[in-house]
């Protein structure tokens, strides 16, 4: 193998490879990552189809299929990049990510579903810069944590503070939208990366104290908007306002519960067909899985995600470089947290946060960025020089 810039180029197959045609499958590395991502994307297309099939003239399925295609093309391209060369371009990628977040706050930005988090370029063409800023921030934090000073085996105070500063800038910009759910994703992935990098344990006590102080400050300054406070109250008692703020959570639980063990069958969900659950093709796509595929189908979605995350943790543990470990750890924390929150809010265990289910929910920006993140895991996996 040789490298040209950040891209790696595979030389002609060896004699042993030519004797084993199946070895050519290495063209698409890390099948332990690709197969779960592909299965989840396929399930997502079916669920989006079911959730939107009764909408006249809807092109949501076609758009999601296009996003999945672009996402897998990007997955492959990113997986072929030599991360050791990519590190030279991380500052540029990070600044581009911040530029997108700043652009949202200008007249280019648009408010959709209560958050001024989108840029609309034309009829039906829109994207969410915060989704693409996630990967850029992961790479930036990994660069800060993945370069211990001489004589150090783990990041020092300076590296940890730099990592926190790199996370704080996008968090602040996203909080201005306001999109607190996405802002928390950045905080979680930054904290997870600091953990897997082996930072001293005293930092975690500082994080807990800072988090408590932050919550107190938000409460004292009345930074929580009324509808966000109502969401917390609904979590404590969903039946207190079943036709108001508790409507989403109530209908979601009804839809999932009505599926039983085996579900009502794909395209046969009465709740789904009646559109009783708002945003059922995006943030609440898991309700479609629960109603039409039942407990077993919904559990299959979760198990596929767990398989991908487990593989990501294995890659983080086996990476020969601190940079690769931090990148893999950040991606795993990102995808795991979003899955946990999305499934939890759908089942009424967590407040509604507006986070999509990775690979499954409708949304071009989220789908493409999640698949690109899998490409980063595959790129880290290549550095281990072990079979995928």
Automatic annotation (TrEMBL):
Task: Give TM regions.
Answer: 25-49, 61-79, 86-105, 125-145, 157-174, 180-196, 203-221, 293-314, 326-353, 359-380
Any one Gene Ontology BP term: regulation of cell shape
One MF term in the entry's GO annotations:
lipid-linked peptidoglycan transporter activity
Per the UniProt entry, the Enzyme Commission number(s) are 2.4.99.28
Q: Any idea which UniProt keywords this protein has?
A: Cell shape, Membrane, Transmembrane, Transmembrane helix
One GO cellular-component annotation of the UniProt record comes to: plasma membrane
Q: Which reaction does it catalyse?
A: [GlcNAc-(1->4)-Mur2Ac(oyl-L-Ala-gamma-D-Glu-L-Lys-D-Ala-D-Ala)](n)-di-trans,octa-cis-undecaprenyl diphosphate + beta-D-GlcNAc-(1->4)-Mur2Ac(oyl-L-Ala-gamma-D-Glu-L-Lys-D-Ala-D-Ala)-di-trans,octa-cis-undecaprenyl diphosphate = [GlcNAc-(1->4)-Mur2Ac(oyl-L-Ala-gamma-D-Glu-L-Lys-D-Ala-D-Ala)](n+1)-di-trans,octa-cis-undecaprenyl diphosphate + di-trans,octa-cis-undecaprenyl diphosphate + H(+)
Q: What pathway is this protein a component of? A: Cell wall biogenesis; peptidoglycan biosynthesis
- Keyword Transmembrane found: yes
Task: Quote the InterPro entries the UniProt record gives.
Answer: Cell_cycle_FtsW-rel_CS, FtsW/RodA, RodA/MrdB
Q: State its location(s).
A: Membrane
Top EC class of this enzyme: transferase
Membrane topology type:
Multi-pass membrane protein
Q: What is this protein called?
A: peptidoglycan glycosyltransferase
């Amino acid at each position: 193998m040789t490298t040209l810039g950040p891209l790696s180029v595979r030389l002609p197959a060896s004699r042993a490879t030519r004797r084993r045609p199946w070895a050519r499958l290495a063209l698409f590395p890390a099948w332990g990552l690709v197969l779960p991502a592909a299965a989840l994307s396929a399930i997502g297309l079916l669920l989006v189809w079911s959730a939107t099939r009764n909408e006249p003239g809807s092109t949501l399925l076609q758009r999601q299929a296009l996003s999945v295609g672009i996402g897998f093309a990007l997955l492959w391209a990113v997986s072929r990049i030599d991360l050791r060369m990519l590190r030279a371009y991380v500052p540029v990628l990070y600044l581009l990510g911040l530029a997108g977040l700043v652009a949202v706050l200008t007249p280019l930005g648009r408010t959709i579903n209560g958050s001024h988090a989108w840029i609309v370029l034309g009829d039906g063409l829109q994207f969410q810069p915060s989704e693409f800023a996630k990967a850029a921030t992961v790479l930036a934090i990994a660069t800060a944590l993945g370069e211990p000073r001489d004589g150090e085996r783990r990041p020092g105070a300076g590296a940890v503070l730099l990592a926190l500063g790199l996370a704080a800038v996008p968090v602040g910009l996203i909080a201005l939208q306001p999109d607190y759910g996405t802002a928390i994703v950045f905080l979680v992935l930054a904290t997870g990366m600091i953990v897997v990098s082996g930072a001293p344990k005293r930092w975690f006590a500082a994080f807990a104290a800072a988090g408590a102080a932050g919550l107190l400050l938000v409460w004292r300054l009345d930074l929580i908007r009324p509808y966000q406070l109502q969401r917390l109250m609904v979590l404590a008692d969903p039946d207190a306002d079943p036709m108001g703020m508790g409507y989403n959570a109530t209908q979601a639980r009804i839809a999932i519960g009505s599926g039983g063990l085996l579900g009502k069958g794909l395209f046969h969900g009465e709740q789904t067909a009646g559109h009783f659950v708002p945003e059922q093709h995006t943030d609440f796509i898991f309700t479609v899985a629960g109603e039409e595929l039942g407990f077993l189908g919904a559990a299959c979605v979760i198990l596929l995600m767990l398989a991908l995350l487990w593989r990501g943790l294995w890659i983080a543990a086996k990476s020969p470089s601190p940079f690769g470990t931090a990148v893999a750890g950040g991606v795993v924390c990102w995808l795991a947290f979003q899955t946990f929150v999305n499934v939890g809010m759908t089942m009424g265990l967590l407040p509604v946060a507006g986070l999509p289910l990775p690979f499954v929910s409708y949304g071009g920006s989220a789908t493409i960025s999640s698949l690109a993140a899998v490409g980063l895991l595959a790129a880290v996996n290549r550095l281990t020089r072990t079979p995928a």
